[in-house]
Amino acid sequence: MANNMVYLALQNNEDARPIIEAIAEDNPHATINHYPAMVKIDAPGRLTVKRASVEEKLGRDWDPQEIQINLISISGNVVESEEEFAVERLS
Amino acid sequence: MAKPMNMRDKYNRMTRDLGWEPSYQPKSKIYPQIEFEGIKIENWEQWEDPFRLTMDAYWKYQAEKERKLYAVIDSFAQNNGQLNITDARYVNALKLFLTGISPAEYSAHRGFSMVGRAFPGVGAQVACQMQAVDELRHVQTQVHTISHYNKYFNGFQDFRHMHDRVWYLSVPKSFFEDAQTAGPFEFITAISFSFEYVLTNLLFMPFMSGAAFNGDMATVTFGFSAQSDEARHMTLGLEVIKFMLQQHPDNVPIVQRWIDKWFWRGYRLLSLVAMMMDYMLPKRVMSWKEAWEMYFEQNGGALFEDLARYGIRMPKYWEVSVQEKDHLSHQTWATFYNYGHAAAFHTWMPDAEEMAWLAAKYPDSFDRWYRPRYEHWIAQEKAGHRFYNPSLPMLCQTCQIPMLYTDMDDPTQVVYRSTEYQGEKYHFCSDGCKDIFEHEPEKYVQAWLPVNQIYQGHCGGATVPEVLNWYHLRDGQDNRDYLYSEDRQNWLRWKEASSQLETT
């Protein structure tokens, strides 16, 4: 079976919680794994963090580049725009 | 008013527009290192930066990370956070981190400053400059955080002096010096791709999560603060690889050989991390074996499936790393226990509960190969014959690790590989290390091997006390068994005092 898994790992803190909730809602194919101090989100193919969804949770403007403050690690090719931050596999 | 620029335009204005065409010197004189490795770049303008981070945004986010980190460090110090760790044995993992890894962050800072200057493309220059600043931040935050532990525990006091001298610290030191003395394309493949993208998750994710689990909020915070830069570094590593592979087909075999070499070099270096995870964390998050499966076999596997379209395959000898996952941490820890008198941290034998955990995590290897050995050493220690190995081990000429790894078909037999070069015989721990030497023997014959240097009289003298003195390692304070250490005595005293305070 082809392995096309990607992940995003975020700190388990107050800043990251709305981002994690937005990712969970926008990526129903994702699995959320909790570790001490860290949340690792795994998914086949692609994971998308949408600006609009995070802004909805936060109640303020949010620039997708802000994810870098609480991002621990990634796997996959990064796709970045004004509207979203994503990691994906090529195939 | 002018319309605000979109992200791509802004990024281009803040990076590409900083470059210019030289008029009074040819480019070959300005960038003299760019051709000798054989990498062919047709067009630097095709460099794509996945993180379109401009310098103003960079400073803004980095300042935010620093504010958060130093708030935690302050509160950790003010609240005597060192008393909230699970057990003082844990602090030994930090000693290994500060002496072995923090100076390597500084080497990475120097390396990225050099390659940022060596590359002609503006996108690559900016990414390397940011990473050079990041790496400097990492070493500084690590020294600041761990300096608090230096007030209470032995072994931290002279980490920089030790890094250049102590036998096992030559393993990370030589790894980075090997990369820094390569050309710019090999350096960035080695550090950004093979080390950062494929391997550093093993260090920062399970280990830092382990630090949190063991009550060390200061370390977990610098660890994750550093790791938040790592996402950008990893992306740079992947971009560099794809860029080289797309620029010219002649680059593919060169890049593949570098991936093979630096995967194996990095994997050998991670033996220290394997031992930290399985033996040095009083509360464990996951075993080395589980971490290798999650971060290398699963995520590394997906990565190399992506790269197959460019003609790149899995790194050579990756199968050996999978076979060794049942043995790596045990063989490494057993070696440090043997040489605990010459290490700048304390060693110990796992207790009954920890051995049960190891047996459960390693059902195919622990009870059969390692528990009997440990039980024998524990009995010897109880009888007053704690075994310290008085001889000096033979080192691998490439990775500089003592010859401790065994044949996976027969874990009682140490692997010995050797080759001849200009009438001299050289020794290796593995086929991977032997291959690396044979491709560049003129480089590796110059290796500064600690054991050989001691025998040649360059390390303070011929006896162990003289060598320890030369290391600035205080015999009886920094080394030997945790059980009899000042660290443990102090820890028990502090914990008793604080529990008495709580009951009054």
**Rg of chain B, alpha carbons:** 24 Å
Class computed from helices, strands and strand pairing of chain B = mainly alpha
The count of DSSP E runs of length 2 or more, i.e. the number of strands of chain A, is: 7
Q: Describe the sheet with the most strands of chain B.
A: 2 strands, antiparallel
* Biggest interface: A-B, 33 and 38 residues
Spatially, the strands of the biggest sheet of chain A line up as 2-3-1-5
Order of helices and strands of chain B: HHHHHHHHHHHHHHHHEEHHHHH
InterPro entries (chain A): MOase_MmoB_DmpM (IPR003454), mOase_MmoB_DmpM_sf (IPR036889)
Keywords (chain A): Monooxygenase, Oxidoreductase
Pfam family, one (chain A): MmoB_DmpM
Family (chain A): Belongs to the TmoD/XamoD family.
List the helices and strands and how they pair.
The complex is a heterodimer of chains A (91) and B (504).
Chain A: E1 5-11, H1 17-26, E2 31-35, E3 38-44, E4 46-50, H2 51-58, E5 71-75, E6 77-80, E7 84-88
Chain B: H1 7-14, H2 27-30, H3 55-78, H4 91-118, H5 122-150, H6 159-163, H7 170-180, H8 184-213, H9 217-247, H10 251-269, H11 271-280, H12 288-307, H13 318-324, H14 328-338, H15 352-361, H16 366-382, E1 417-421, E2 424-428, H17 431-439, H18 441-444, H19 450-455, H20 464-471, H21 486-503
Antiparallel strand pairs in B: 1-2
